[in-house]
Amino acid sequence: MTAEALLFNPQRHIELEGTQNIRDLGGYPTKDGKQTKWGKYYRADSLHKVSQEGHAFLQKEKGIHTIIDLRLSMEGKYRKEDKALYDFYNIPLLDPATFTTKMPKSLVDMYILMLETSKPKFKEIMDIFLKKKGKPVLFHCRVGKDRTGVLAAILLDLAGVSRDIIVKDYALTGEYKKITDEELKNRPPLMSRNQFKTMLECEPAYMEAFLDYLYEKYGDAAGFLKAIGLMEEEIKALRDDFVEKDVQKAQ
Question: What are phi and psi of 5, to 5 degrees?
Answer without folding.
Answer: -65, -35
